[in-house]
């Protein structure tokens, strides 16, 4: 009798063995169904290697552990974000001292920064640099009175090209009518009126300025 006939007698329900798939692309139930099908339809004269079966089971266990770990990390991330948002919101009503030289540019829209001029200046120069320190835009404000001033940047460089979203820094220098330097402060002191999550991250609203949490230097009761 031919070997093919022996196989048919030993397993009359035998069907074509499904193509083996990567266990990482299968769920637990699908993987177990595939494994049972392989055992039911295996050649009795050439059964599945036990080491191969153990390897497949180990791969399934590893995938399940990774999926469980991913779920737990996502749950932890949500919990930490909720705690952080609560803590940031508690800053409303407190006085903060922060670095106001940072500009956060989104995909669309303007970026803004602020500075305080200690005396009157005949010439004010604003240099905007990217995170690598490269100069991307220079603006001249002209005659400016003492006090705090906001600078709005349309997000384009000196040749009119839109810059990619990210964090930029504004360096402000000033001179009076005689060419002498006028002191400029990039520190902002004020009361946090509210907290905005408009752009997907917390921003402290201090007067007309938006302050990133990482730029806060001091918080007073």
Description:
- The structure is a single chain.
- By secondary structure, this protein is of the alpha+beta class.
- A hairpin with a 6-residue loop joins β10 and β11.
- The termini are far apart.
- The N terminus is likely disordered.
Question: Keyphrases for this structure?
Answer:
alpha+beta; four-stranded antiparallel sheet; three-stranded antiparallel sheet; disordered N terminus
Write the layout of secondary structure elements.
Layout: H1 3-10, H2 28-40, H3 50-89, E1 95-99, E2 102-105, E3 111-117, E4 123-129, E5 135-140, E6 147-153, E7 166-175, E8 184-185, E9 187-191, E10 194-196, E11 203-206, E12 209-212, E13 216-220
Antiparallel strand pairs: 1-9, 1-13, 2-7, 3-6, 3-8, 4-5, 4-7, 10-11, 11-12
